[in-house]
Amino acid sequence: MRTEEILAAIGTGLWSWDSSSGSVSFDAEAARLVGLPAEPTTRPGGEVRPRFHPADWDEIDGIVNFAIAEGTLAEARLRIMDENGSVVRTVRTRSKPVPLNTPGRHTYVLMGTLQEVTEPPAGAAAQTPLTGDWRRSREAFLLDAGRALAEAASTEEVLRVAASLSMPGFSPDGLALFGVSGERLTVIGHHGQNAGDEEPFTDMPLETDYPAAEVVRTGQAIYLESPEEYRRRFPATWPLAKGFRRQSWAFLPLISSGHTTGAWMAGFQHRVAFSPDERSVLSTVARMLAQALTRAGAAENERELSLGLQRSMRPSLGPDVPGLAVAARYIPTGGGLQVGGDWYDVIPLPNGRIALVIGDVQGHDVRAAGLMGQLRIALRAYASEGHRPDAVLSRASRFLSGLTETYDPLDGEDRSDATRFATCLYAEADPTTGTLDVARAGHPDPVVISVDGTAVIRQTAGGLPLGVEKDADYPTTRVVLGSGETIMLCTDGLIETGGHDMATGWTRLRPVLEKPVEDLEELADALVQTVHGPGSHYTTGPLADRREDDIAVLVLRREGARTRRTPARRSAMTIAQAEPERVAAARQQLRELLHDWGDAEQIDSAELMVSEMSTNVLVHTDGDALLVAEVTGERGMRRLRVEVADASDELPHKRRPGEMASSGRGLMLMEMLADLWGVDPRGEGKSIWFELYEAAEPAELGAGLVS
């Protein structure tokens, strides 16, 4: 008797489904079961498909893929429909998918049996109904679980999400996640056990006769439908599991990037038959758990590395310096790691002064952080040797240029990434006199905040960024802080973050800098909050809002007694013969000094006179010009006095230029525009000056005027 005849005698037919061609073959009994003539036949899939309930047919593909992945049989129950769309019978199929070696395609032949069933199998009817509602519930559960696990940012959050999973129809009452550490299996989290119950499972060799250990060794899931099956398959560890009084267990591998990283155990107080639907749900959850744990582990490793880099690279401000108060902030915002190329430093010098350093290495990656650390150490070494600011930056530029020239990119890395540069500002501060000698390498200028709160960008001479040229020069500018005045140094991230350029970013920061604060720590926090706090999204600039640049801020205040008298605003600048473009910088600095002056026409007049006075020195003498501007008095009654001094003894005199003359009108302009002006000879050279009064009549301004 043939096999087909034996199977037909017990109401079982044979069928096969070729996914590459879409054809389905039946023997006589299988054809009868699906409503076709009782004879062997091969039909196109499109002709056979209407014989099955649409929901059941759609389910077959997922069940087959799951069976291929786990190397198990594909089991399902299928409802057979007649021409009128009515269910005439339900058949059970047990089939083996055999993959085909089709180049570039995922194909298989499904071969198995069809057998009519009259009722759901015992133990599964209550738990796995074949209704569309259950399938929709399963899909909704997997969608919610996937979303929750995708948002979990740490291992602790992944465990919390896993413990809260409520699977449709067969929720486990106990869960455990196992990880692999070397050749040992450890519990990394559990739920549903009393404290201490998990102790025997917390650390065991991978050779242990335990389901989770076998899952890790083989990469195959283990489903235990009853205590008897558990006891038969794992007699050595059954006494430990017996105390939990569970009826069914599922142990599934946690696989990420093709590697088994651990196992997941789901235990049930009731019997579970682990139908293909249930296994599919459990397998999907296990894959999502593995991916979530991998992401969380990588994020935690990055955070730990970032914190370590920050602790090792970011300096403390060191001991207090008498006469000076210092505060600083570093906010890493770019790249995957929370560390970048910005840095600051405060360096005690051998001469009793201190050096303030702030800089920004090009890029927001690990290499930028590494170069930053090397450059910071080099700057500290050069400063500690006692070099002046210009020499420190020249040596640092040569050092960075050498680093980038000898850089050997890794395989696949872009060679253009080898060249990196860095901007830097180095200032040597004397706590006794309040002077700062500033050298700048392509970095934003400092901001000086007077005692009355006026913030002015202090124009300083500068050179190329570090690393661009080996032998670059970095001129030094002297800035003098009066008692109670503050200087702010920052990287461009503070100014340009939030879609701003240098101009609009400075406009956004100015009110924060000019707000009266006694504590520098409060000022540093306020600056960071302005560009990264909740309200920063309402103050975005005209460019794209990219919050990916790191931020470093360093503020220093010269301490001193505060008086009730309104302090003077004062600004000084040297205009060298070789730098005539500094005349424009002087005009800009004067305009910022007078930003709240009552009469806009007087500001224009002051700019014009400063330009005339400075240009006169550069044209008619061989020396440099020293410009000093000072505002004194109460608002509305203030006086502006500007002096331009030079080393020439030749005094200017009025001339009557012709209509077409290109010079000779400077003193005539001052006589027309200034409220008061004059020329004072000095021991070496002379000083030409003018005064403007904010009020119609000058007030009694008292002492403290520049003479």
Detailed description of the structure:
The protein has 707 residues and is α+β, with helices and mostly antiparallel strands. It is 33% helix and 27% strand. The strands form five sheets. The chain has a six-stranded antiparallel beta sheet. Helix 11 runs antiparallel to helix 12 (389-405). It starts with a helix and ends in a 14-residue tail after the last strand.
Q: Can you tell me the residue ranges where pLDDT is under 50 for at least 5 consecutive residues? A: 120-131, 658-663, 698-707
Helices, by number, come to 18
What percentage of residues falls in helices of 4 or more residues?
Answer: 25-40%
Q: How far is it from the N-terminal to the C-terminal residue, by CA? A: 127 Å
Which quaternary structure do these chains form? single chain
Structural class: alpha+beta
DSSP summary, beta strand count:
27
Name the average pLDDT.
81
Strand content: 25-35%
* Coarse morphology: elongated
Q: Could you tell me the radius of gyration in angstroms?
A: 40 Å
Biggest sheet, strands in spatial order? 3-2-1-6-5-4
How is the main sheet built? 6 strands, antiparallel
Describe the structure concisely.
The chain is built from 18 helices and 27 strands. It is an alpha+beta fold.
Please tag this protein with its features.
single chain; 707 residues; alpha+beta; six-stranded antiparallel beta sheet; 33% helix; elongated; disordered C terminus
Give the topology:
Blueprint: H1 3-9, E1 12-18, E2 23-26, H2 28-33, E3 41-44, H3 45-48, H4 54-70, E4 74-81, E5 87-100, E6 107-117, H5 132-151, H6 155-164, E7 174-181, E8 184-191, E9 203-205, H7 211-218, E10 222-224, H8 227-233, H9 238-242, E11 248-256, E12 259-268, H10 276-313, E13 324-331, E14 342-348, E15 354-361, H11 366-384, H12 389-405, E16 422-429, E17 435-441, E18 447-449, E19 455-457, E20 476-480, E21 486-490, H13 492-496, H14 502-514, H15 520-532, E22 551-558, E23 569-575, H16 582-593, H17 600-620, E24 625-632, E25 639-646, H18 666-673, E26 676-681, E27 686-693
Antiparallel strand pairs: 1-2, 1-6, 2-3, 4-5, 5-6, 7-8, 7-12, 8-9, 10-11, 11-12, 13-22, 14-15, 15-16, 16-17, 17-20, 18-19, 18-21, 21-22, 23-24, 24-25, 25-27, 26-27
